[in-house]
Amino acid sequence: MLELRLVQGSLLKKVLESIKDLVNDANFDCSATGFSLQAMDSSHVALVALLLRSEGFEHYRCDRNISMGMNLTNMSKMLKCAGNDDIITIKADDGSDTVTFMFESPTQDKISDFEMKLMDIDSEHLGIPEAEYHAIVKMPSSEFARICKDLSGIGDTVVISVTKEGVKFSTRGDIGTANIVCRQNTTVDKPEEATVIDMNEPVSLTFALRYMNSFTKATTLSNTVTISLSSELPVVVEYKIAEMGYIRFYLAPKIEEDEDETKPEV
Amino acid sequence: MLELRLVQGSLLKKVLESIKDLVNDANFDCSATGFSLQAMDSSHVALVALLLRSEGFEHYRCDRNISMGMNLTNMSKMLKCAGNDDIITIKADDGSDTVTFMFESPTQDKISDFEMKLMDIDSEHLGIPEAEYHAIVKMPSSEFARICKDLSGIGDTVVISVTKEGVKFSTRGDIGTANIVCRQNTTVDKPEEATVIDMNEPVSLTFALRYMNSFTKATTLSNTVTISLSSELPVVVEYKIAEMGYIRFYLAPKIEEDEDETKPEV
Amino acid sequence: MLELRLVQGSLLKKVLESIKDLVNDANFDCSATGFSLQAMDSSHVALVALLLRSEGFEHYRCDRNISMGMNLTNMSKMLKCAGNDDIITIKADDGSDTVTFMFESPTQDKISDFEMKLMDIDSEHLGIPEAEYHAIVKMPSSEFARICKDLSGIGDTVVISVTKEGVKFSTRGDIGTANIVCRQNTTVDKPEEATVIDMNEPVSLTFALRYMNSFTKATTLSNTVTISLSSELPVVVEYKIAEMGYIRFYLAPKIEEDEDETKPEV
Known about the structure:
The structure is a homotrimer of 266-residue chains.
Chain A: E1 2-6, H1 10-19, E2 25-30, E3 34-40, E4 46-53, E5 59-62, E6 66-71, H2 72-79, E7 87-92, E8 98-104, E9 110-117, E10 135-140, H3 141-152, E11 157-162, E12 166-173, E13 176-183, E14 196-199, E15 203-208, H4 209-215, E16 224-229, E17 235-241, E18 245-251
Antiparallel strand pairs in A: 1-5, 1-7, 2-3, 2-6, 3-4, 4-18, 7-8, 8-9, 10-14, 10-16, 11-12, 11-15, 12-13, 16-17, 17-18
Helix pairs in contact in A: 1-2, 3-4
């Protein structure tokens, strides 16, 4: 028996909107610790890891560990029917091949239950070791989203270069080149507006903008984003989910085929 | 000679937006009582009845009963040119094959007149007898619109079931099932937020969601909607037009081909 | 060496949005006087003239007159990456085949530079003589935009007729006819809401609505528009750019093939 009651149901709606375009089908894993998901995107390039800790739920009952395979498009269709102020409860009976989403309006005048068929999905759970990163950039999530969107109007890839002074996002395409520099800046009125750089050594890595843009769909979940970079590791783009957990996106850097920086990257 | 002056011209704009997708061509009937329309939708499944009473007009002159055939798409194109605060006057000379819509801006600085060709439309006027209904549900129109929209993401038909406690909207489709229950609720701050159920006997009827969704285009006309249900009659979905009349949509229930409720309806 | 620093960078963004759909490629001419452009639309029917005077820039350095050929779609893609509060600097080195747009956020935390390739564009600069017009209409730019949009739902051309009392915009199409009269009105609370007619002799001219609608993309640049009409000259539709200059659109009137006004224009 599984019953998870989330007062701030809009969080779950936002989580689905963040990942449904990247991942088609995925197993949600439920244990005493929390409700989590780990999935590769459909082209097996990027990895998503979601965690919603059990403490973040108003009520959390999970008698035994289960893994529920869901089609994220269908799940998103159902969650879209929840109001933004609704309480969402996820329910599943032991051995059942369905999951139920219950939505309660704040006034309790409207109660909806949506039952969805579960799927069998083959998936291997990758262990993601804790790692040391050369540089960690924390910045406003809306700023990062804007930069990825702007650069994708010019080119296909972004070079992210971190120095002590700031982080530079660069691209080049048929119509020209673009460089956007965000300076370290901690003297802001609101902490979520700060750009903070924690660097051990300078790093410069290239990524596909298409994926970066997809990750920024999680911007609604958090005011800030943390980008962890290391030359030997996939980048981690992390959005914290207030008091509950996180969504993390992992993406391997592109290998530069040509060291000559003056030539255009294709 | 016909001359109808409507100070709140935006009402007529909203009326057209409510019905133009459902009905292509229709006769507007003008008499001493008011300005009215009755028309089947293009697939002859749903019926629309509109009444704007003469008292609701600032000036209402209709020397003799006339019926004016109009293409609603074209009429809508013209009414879209009226500002939301404009006064609209409908004018037609006896025997003329055109109608004129005059728009006056509140400051009288801008006066527009749009002349549209009338059409000959065959139509039979159905007498709609006053009827007794098993159950009448009055609820916020935006809530009803939201429910119809949400359910159409899951299935094609909606089962509306009324009991003393509340009204249940259900659907099922390939991806699962959905039930939304709105409880009777009269202790609200604003009367238009109440859900009021007036029931003689329980009723459960099935309707095509496509039509229900089309009817909810009238949501802009009224804060509340009244749904009148009876097992032998078409449902009536009524939107009152403040101090002037109403738009009513009639739709016959779908006959269940299979009594076995566990089987999906196709 | 060219370096033009525009504190209100959003002006340049709006200028590009105003003309990029009308003109594909154009030469921007830079001299001690200012930054200007003159270009025919791609079908060689309408002419655009832009002037941004040097005094309007915070810093204006132009060592020698140069003409920079730009693809306006690409330029617009780059300028879209500037924030609305950003300072924009246009830079070009002598003899360089690129131009650089630099965007500085108000807090100076984010500095972007976009480099775009220049093009060789054949163009002849037309001398546009100062002319006397039969009638000059000054009216709210949003009102003019609304009228052009509304009429294009009915017909393809607009007849603009000016008398001392007001200006009339008329069209006719398959579904009927439309006439919109804006009366001269100078007793308004805000001067930008006035409709002022300066007339030497009545004039009535026909124009393609498609172009008029395109011109109204400049509505964001100014609260008012000035329409200068003369039977022997192209109409001038002018939007002033506050304290800097203007955008002017020129369009030749359509010749009426038939003097009989009762016949429809095709």
